[in-house]
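REQUEST ID: PR-0412
SUBMITTED BY: lab tech R.K.
PRIORITY: routine
TASK: structure prediction, single protein chain
INPUT:
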Amino acid sequence: MNVRSFSHRRQQGATLLVALVMLIVMTLLGLASIRGTSMQERMGANMYDRSLAFQAVESALREAESTISITTTVTNSAGLYCLPGGTPPLCAVTPSGAPGSTTTYVDRWNDSTTQWRSATTWWSQIDTAMKGKLSDDDDGAPEYIIEYMGDFEDGTGCGRRGSTSCRGPRYRITARMPPVDGRPNVVLQTTYRP
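STATUS: complete
OUTPUT:
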């Protein structure tokens, strides 16, 4: 029987080194998967918040359309505006900042002096938990502005050029969630013909 003996000097500790390298690799893979999972959770939460805000802004558009069906007078305040150079009967006053005037025209949804109208119908029907997801306070209802754009043909092919019998008013509605830090900013715009 031949017995080999190994001296302690020849052992280099390769097993320990390989185990440590494998442990480091496994730790890095674990950290990467945790990071990826947390990123996916944040993205999912952001998409959920944005979806809620989008639904709220859509409700503001619907409320603005029903407001137009009821009210046809544009007051140039409280969310009802005429475009620069608006014409009677719906636009009695030309707003300041019209093209060609000395002040610069700014889109109303970008103008800090614009008075937005709160869309309270949908907002009053949702629960407090949902309001907390959309805004920091109970007064953070979606808002809208309505701009009268003039009279246009209704598209039914009335025929004669200049005929006013088939013309109707058009409105541009812009709706948004009030800006809140850390919340999604959703702005929607549509053109409406009653």
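NOTES: Confidence is low (pLDDT under 50) at residues 97-103.
REVIEWED BY: pending
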